[in-house]
Amino acid sequence: MTAADPPAALRLDRVGFGYAREHPVLHGIDLAIPAGQTVALVGRNGCGKSTLLRLLAGALHPTSGRVLLDGEDIAALGRRAIARRVAVLHQALPPIPGMTARRLVRQGRFAHRGVLGMLRDSEDDITRDAMARAGVADLADRPLESLSGGERQRVRLALALAQDTPVLLLDEPTTYLDVRHQLEVLDLVADFARRLTVVMVLHDLDHAARYADRIVALREGAVAADGGPADVVHDSMLRDVFGVRGRVLIDERHGTPYCRLDTPV
């Protein structure tokens, strides 16, 4: 890192990981993610995207190399210490009968308030602000099971925001959402990203190119491409990383690449 480079909020230093020694999922991953950057992880199913995100969250520990959070080895940090600095939006939330949106979002304050603080029924200003920013304040007393998919996802975003962390990790935040709700959620993430470091797993390349500052493409557990959307998303990347033939065009309105997919290679 040179004197002109921003400090890395997250760094993977020669990281390898495997659920079994004979079946490595990731190998030789070197990434530095500066504070304030929005990164999209893309690639085919099984290439290691979600595993990489779990390593960044400290939910998994590498079998080789190190994951650093603000220069500290994340393996040496406790779960609560990590939760004060990294919020995670997982693909799905198990059903919780009777849970209201307000009660769920309040769970995001546990790392800061502790058990005794959570026993108090009052919500703090950060909880209220998180719900307002995610556009779900009017849903506060609604049971989660009564909400639409898009509403539930916005409530889950409010839960992540309520942790009040500088880093936000999102694993396929648009899964199971229709097109309108996908755009609503990604527009919210883009608004949050002005103040946060964001890493998100996305399947839609057009969304990745539009909403991320940087795209990291994985292939067979290694980094196949890394850079700005215009540098990464091109015809040969579609072929080499995704195994499809296609054309990459430029969206005149947003100035970002978008794909027209033709056939599998």
TrEMBL record:
One of its GO terms (molecular function) is ATP binding. Keywords: ATP-binding, Cell membrane, Ion transport, Iron, Iron transport, Membrane, Nucleotide-binding, Transport. It comes from the Bacteria. Residues 10-245 form the ABC transporter domain. It is a peripheral membrane protein. It is found in: Cell membrane. Its main location: membrane. InterPro entries: AAA+_ATPase, ABC_transporter-like_ATP-bd, ABC_transporter-like_CS, P-loop_NTPase, Siderophore_ABC-ATPase. This is ABC transporter ATP-binding protein. It comes from Nocardiopsis sediminis.
